[in-house]
């Protein structure tokens, strides 16, 4: 059994929970998965760096040290961290207005943002705030991803068609710019881009075992080389990525000046929330398939440490990569060693393949990113949301259009804010049902049917939801309507088993209603009060106000006690036998309307 001290500091050595159990079988399986993962990340990393406005080699750097650190200090066996589409899009959207993409100033801002994101992730993990990602609903993620996908495609129009235009700004700005330059389309560049796109589609559909990104990039590069050999580059005008640095990730340092921190803080928060949501969601999904559980707080810590370390090794924001993690799982990875091996292997591969990047056309990258963007739009899930819920549809739509026409990082905040507003609107209106004993049902069970007779003196009500400051207005309105429409029903019994929570204001609402009923010669009664609710009502003073004898744990006991307090002269003239306690009279039911 772990001591309290070792439990307290276990977040520093989470790898000790799985490392001692690694044997030859695990190492062999993880090594094979690492080889496949390292090959897959090569084209992805370059593509994502292009999206982020970073030099291509920085995408590779983001798949090295961050992947190793996240695997060591996370809790998932299969999650692989690195550059992702969403993080890259947000990075470009936020930083392209501050500095020229690809410039030294831009890179410095990106590394500073990475450090800030890592610091926020680490702080949230240490504060045990792993549940924070639950506030980003699935509809927000789907809407944001779809909006980001359109922006990715729009920002690659200049490379896809080989025209000189400004690809910054919002979607409508980019489309207007494209319209102004549409007559400048380069046929050779467009041919390379379209060919790359078609090759990628063909391999993805008919040869899924072969990495379609690698096949598409090789195919597009060969077509570009052929066109240049036939017509000459001065005629084709096909631009290439250029040779990548062949060394190891250079050391770097974030620029933590006050101005940079203030400027980057909103973006850092947005990236932090979305990056953690992405990582934890992927981790949970793979854990469910693998039959184990992950620790959300430890994942926060692992992601935070990976980005902090990455910012000193020329890596921009890294988070859980769905593609790499899925490939890692499918390739048979057993432990986090697979992600560690993949990061180390990538460090060794880059010096070998870096010189060949000079043959990679930017048009091929654009065609590949068109395919990536298409894959990001979850049409099936969008259709499901549109059919299932108007509220979730509104969240999806607001997030989607905010991503297109506002600053991308604020689209997340807009979606989360609307989700919370809709949630509060729903919880502020707890379901209130009027009930009465139904003689036609066994044991005269309570029924909400309108043709069931009600007691002239006692009204029975069920409240399903929480009584808190946001819902008291709705509940008080129901109380007011009841007194106005049925003033003769001076007694009110509330079935409280549907009430999960009561705050001070909710308790005071019950206290006020109890006093009004008492002043009118009646009373307020609570039936089936839960243990936790009883304690909350005691703290609010509601038990004292209603009287401890007016709170009941069973329906039958409540009805017997309340019946003793009814006006018997009214009972004598009542034509209905509502309760078994009403005495021997002919049982009647009201005529159907």
UniProtKB/TrEMBL annotation:
It is found in: Membrane. It is a multi-pass membrane protein. The chain crosses the membrane at residues 31-52, 58-75, 82-100, 106-125, 132-154, 185-203, 210-231, 300-319, 331-353, 359-377, 398-424. InterPro entries: SLC26A/SulP_dom (IPR011547), SLC26A/SulP_fam (IPR001902), STAS_dom (IPR002645), STAS_dom_sf (IPR036513). Keywords: Membrane, Transmembrane, Transmembrane helix. One of its GO terms (cellular component) is membrane. GO terms for biological process: transmembrane transport. Residues 448-562 form the STAS domain. Coiled coil: none annotated. CDD domains: STAS_SulP_like_sulfate_transporter. This is Sulfate permease, SulP family. It comes from Thiocapsa roseopersicina. The lineage of its organism: Bacteria, Pseudomonadati, Pseudomonadota, Gammaproteobacteria, Chromatiales.
């Amino acid at each position: 059994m772990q001591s309290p001290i070792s439990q307290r500091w276990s977040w520093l050595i989470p790898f000790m929970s799985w490392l001692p159990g690694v044997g030859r079988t695990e190492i062999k399986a993880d090594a094979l998965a690492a080889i496949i993962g390292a090959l897959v990340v090569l084209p992805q990393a370059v593509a994502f760096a292009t999206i982020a406005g970073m030099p291509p080699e920085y995408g590779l750097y983001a798949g090295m040290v961050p992947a190793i650190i996240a695997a060591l200090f996370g809790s998932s066996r299969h999650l692989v961290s690195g550059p992702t589409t969403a993080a890259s899009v947000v990075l470009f959207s936020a930083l392209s207005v501050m500095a020229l993409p690809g410039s030294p100033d831009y890179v410095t801002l990106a590394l500073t943002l990475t450090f800030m994101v890592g610091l926020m992730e680490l702080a949230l993990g240490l504060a045990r705030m792993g549940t924070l990602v639950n506030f980003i609903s699935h509809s927000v993620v789907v809407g944001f991803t779809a909006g980001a996908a359109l922006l990715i495609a729009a920002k690659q129009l200049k490379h896809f068609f080989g025209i000189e235009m400004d690809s910054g700004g919002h979607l409508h700005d980019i489309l207007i710019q494209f319209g102004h330059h549409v007559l400048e389309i380069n046929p050779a560049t467009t041919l390379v881009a379209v060919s790359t796109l078609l090759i990628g589609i063909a391999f993805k559909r008919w040869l899924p075992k072969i990495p379609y990104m690698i096949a598409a990039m090789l195919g597009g590069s060969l077509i570009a080389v052929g066109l240049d050999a036939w017509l000459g580059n001065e005629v084709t005008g096909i631009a290439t990525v250029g040779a990548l640095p062949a060394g190891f990730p250079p050391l770097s340092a974030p620029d933590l000046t006050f101005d940079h921190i203030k400027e980057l803080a909103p973006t850092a928060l947005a990236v932090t929330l979305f990056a953690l949501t992405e990582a934890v969601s992927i981790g949970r999904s793979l854990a469910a398939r693998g039959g184990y559980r992950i620790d959300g707080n430890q994942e926060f810590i692992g992601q935070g440490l990976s980005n902090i370390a990455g910012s000193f090794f020329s890596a921009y924001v890294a988070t859980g990569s769905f593609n790499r993690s899925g490939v890692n799982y499918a390739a048979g990875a057993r432990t986090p060693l697979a992600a560690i091996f993949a990061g180390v292997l990538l460090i060794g591969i880059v010096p070998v393949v870096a010189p060949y990047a000079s043959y990679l056309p930017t048009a091929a990258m654009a065609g590949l990113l068109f395919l990536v963007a298409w894959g990001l739009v979850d049409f099936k899930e969008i259709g499901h949301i549109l059919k299932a819920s108007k509220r979730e549809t509104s969240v999806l739509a607001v997030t989607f259009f905010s991503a297109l026409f506002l600053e991308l990082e604020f689209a997340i905040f807009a979606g989360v804010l609307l989700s919370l507003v809709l949630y509060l609107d729903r919880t502020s209106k707890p379901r209130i049902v009027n009930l009465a004993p139904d003689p036609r049902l066994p044991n005269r069970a309570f029924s909400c049917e309108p043709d069931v007779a009600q007691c002239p003196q006692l009204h029975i009500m069920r409240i399903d939801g929480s009584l808190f400051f946001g819902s008291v207005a709705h509940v008080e309105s129901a109380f007011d309507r009841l007194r106005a429409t049925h003033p003769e029903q001076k007694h009110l019994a509330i079935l409280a088993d549907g009430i999960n929570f009561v705050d001070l204001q909710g308790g005071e609402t019950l206290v006020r209603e109890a006093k009004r009923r008492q002043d009118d010669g009646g009373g307020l009664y609570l039936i089936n009060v839960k243990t936790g609710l009883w304690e909350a009502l005691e703290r609010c003073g509601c038990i004292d106000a209603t009287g401890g004898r007016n709170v009941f744990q069973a329906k039958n006991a409540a009805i017997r006690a309340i019946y003793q307090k009814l006006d018997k002269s009214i009972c004598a003239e009542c034509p209905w036998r509502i309760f078994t306690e009403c005495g021997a009279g002919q049982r009647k039911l009201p005529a159907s309307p």
